[in-house]
Every structure is written in structure tokens, then in C-alpha cells.
Amino acid sequence: MTSLWTPRLRMRAPTADDGAFYAAFYEASDVTVGGYRGGRSPAEVAEIHARDMAHWQSRGYGMFLLFDRKSGAFLGGTGLAWPDGWPCHELTWFLMPAARGKGYAREASLAVIDWAHETLGWTRVETHMRDENAPARHLAEAIASACGGREDRRQSFPDGVTRDVYLLSERARDGVPS
């Protein structure tokens, strides 16, 4: 199982035993995730959990679940996703309400970006968000600032929404910029 560690976090790919973590997030969440506002049905939550596990199997990367290294508490998730039919991958995240505003998403995101470059050999890591998602935009800007990234472009997506795309990190491969 793929795992990452940061000073405060243990991060790992989801397993079949993690359904309760997904259910807890959607039960507690008051934010819009993937265009939906909180409260998903048990079937929808199970589908998201299954999709996250399948993503790892089919693509070799995906969401990492985040846990506090000291207490073991579930904090949320951060990872790389490329949904079927979507034009590009993205770094994405979700946090339990009690974990927000403490720097966990930034810390985890920087670890995932390093992992994408070093392990997956990616030259670019991006994220995109809806115009109204101010907290995600603030986090994307903080991550981009830490990595030398920038707002890269506006792009229309298959769901009909045009989003800002942030280039969070870009590294050259073999001396040739990506």
C-alpha cells in the first residue's frame, strides 16, 4: 500500500475497510465537494469510496487518506485524481470540519506534489476549482506560492463549468521544461 509521511500526517491509499471514514466526512461536511453540498446517500458515499480505490488500481495513484500521526484521528484526504472523461489530472483535497484552518491540506498537498514528481515522474501538477470556491482558491494560491506555481489558464470542463487551472508545480525532465 502506498503511504506518505509528513511531520504531522500519515497518508495512505484507501482500503476496503475505510468506508466509515468516507461516511463520516460526508455526514459532517458543510462544504461543496465535486459540485455537491455535503449530505450524500450511503450508496453515493460507497460509490465514491469504491471509485477512489479503483482509481489507484487503474492509474497507480489517487487519493490519500490523512491521519494525525500522534492521535491517529482521521482528518480527510488529499491526492491526485483524473476522472474518466476529464481533460487532465488534478490535485484535490477534502478535510473534516475540525481539521480545517490548521495547514493539513497544504502540508499533505506539498507531500503529494513531491511524490508525483519523484515517484510518478510527472513534470506538472495542477488543480482547478469553481469560481465560487474561495477556500480552495486560497489554498491553491498558497501551494503555488510554496512551489513556484501560478494561475495558468481558464478551461471549460465536461460538466459545462469553466474553471481556473492553477499550475502548482512544474519541473523539467532531462533539462527540457514541460
Radius of gyration equals 16 Å
Note the main sheet.
5 strands, antiparallel
Strand adjacency order, main sheet: 1-2-5-6-7
Mean pLDDT: 89
Structure class: alpha+beta
Oligomeric assembly: single chain
E-strand count = 10
- Please give the share of residues in helix: 25-40%
The percentage of residues in β strands lies in 25-35%
- What gap, in angstroms, lies between the N and C termini? 29 Å
Number of alpha- plus pi-helical segments: 4
The shape is: globular
- Topology as a string of helices (H) and strands (E): EEHEEHEEEHEHEE
Low-confidence stretches: 174-178
Task: Report on the architecture of this protein.
It is a single chain. The chain is α+β, with helices and mostly antiparallel strands and 178 residues long. Helices cover 32% and strands 30% of the residues. The chain contains four helices and ten strands, in the order E-E-H-E-E-H-E-E-E-H-E-H-E-E. The chain has a five-stranded antiparallel β-sheet with strand order 1-2-5-6-7. It has a three-stranded antiparallel β-sheet with strand order 8-10-9. A hairpin with a 5-residue loop joins strand 9 and strand 10 (162-170).
List keywords for this structure.
three-stranded antiparallel sheet, alpha+beta, five-stranded antiparallel sheet, disordered C terminus, 178 residues, 4 helices, 10 strands, 30% strand
